[in-house]
Amino acid sequence: MTDELTQPDDVMAEATELSLAQKRAFHRDGFIVLRQVVAPELTHAAKRRINIFAGREGHLFRYYNELAESVEFPNLVNKSALRDILLRTMGPFDAPQRAMPMVLYPRDPSADVGGYGVADRDIPNFGFVPHLDGQWAGDLPRNQNEVDNWHSPRTEHFGSGDARSRGRNNTPFFQDPACRLGMGSFTAFVGVCLNDQTEFGRGNLAVLRGAHHVVQDFFRMQRASGGGIGPEGSGWPRLRPAGDGGVAMNHLPDAILEHYADEAERTPDGSIWPKPTPILLAEGDAVITLHAIPHCGTRNELGAEPRMNVYFRLRRERPGGATVVGDSDHPDRGWNGEFLDYPEGYDPWQVAIDKLCDHWSEWDGMQDVVAEGSAP
Fold this sequence. Notes:
The protein is of the alpha+beta class. Strands 1-10-3-12-2 form a 5-stranded antiparallel sheet. Helices cover about 20% and strands about 15% of the residues.
């Protein structure tokens, strides 16, 4: 893994398709940066809409659903070169109808101990805590004595502890009624930058470069074990001890974290904090990552203004599958966890498992590069 802060093989605004070299970099790294791919009038409109909501209530997400449906955000993909690049790289996908506008206000590191089990100020790299999207998030036991089972906890914090339970992020505890899939799946996580993030410490998105290879191998191991995929599957306890008697979500299993241990920092409790690759962006830049890339929004410690990005969770069309509107990390279920109707004989959970174990199968324009085996 590298600590370079420059991004490889940038795509310029006039491009509507990745070059062979850029595809090879995308295959190797699991993400690609696109420079000035979204026009200023589109980013201006998106920023204005965010500030209208923030100014109206003093709290950006009080009306999240209304904000997410504002046309200014889907336009960042649907009316920019991003649409053609995604079509030619990923293949047919549902045009986004919703998005996730995410604002990180400037803040100082604090002594607060949150869901990670250690003080905010003690988490290195501006609070980089990598995770994979599609996992339940909610209240946890307050101390280790309250944990009934680290691998498969079933205290009152987790409701019914099955597919009926939803977290505060609306993501189901399990995706399927049989509880064999512990996370949602999609194809591409796409971010559009609305202001200056060219220096690490301004709330940048950060990733574990190249970790998609390790993640795919891990999911394949879980599948081969005959158990579930994701948290509570083989090798992935849902909870872990953290801090001084604390409890934290196990956002990534040890087998993935250990892969990055040589360059990682450790807190006194033994927790591993991997070294990230920060995504350095200016207004109008965008980044495309695989679902399988562990990532995190980091602390806006150096910036003087709120960091503004708009994110999309997109998926290549799955014949028989659900329509993907652009913001959900559990698109095989409704936003509020409701079960959807599928054609007879279509198993969305098995399809999701197969795609998690073969993520490049959903990238039509990458097949020649995948066949090359160009990853190190």
